[in-house]
Amino acid sequence: MKWTSIIAIYALFWVLAAFLVMPFGVRTHDEMGVEKVPGQALSAPANFNPRRVALRATLLSAVMCGLYYANYVNRWITIEDLDIAPLLGI
Questions:
Q1: What is the CB neighbour count within 10 angstroms for residue 47?
Q2: Which 3 state secondary structure label does DSSP give 34?
Q3: Rounded to two decimals, what is the model's pTM?
């Protein structure tokens, strides 16, 4: 596999991981007991930290990309394993 492909796959995993980890640990103003700004949405986060999200996304995407690459090298799951046409009688 080319290194440019690995970078592209890692970037895709990073974006997916960022959206997966974004809601964890975030609390609203009501949950934290902090006063709201007038006109603010009730669900607006009071403690959103983009650095924490980026760090968690980086770690998770490194694990996911590592597993993807290990599967690519060792061929644990191949396209033939995912073929369900024979099971459906097609």
A1: 13
A2: coil
A3: 0.83
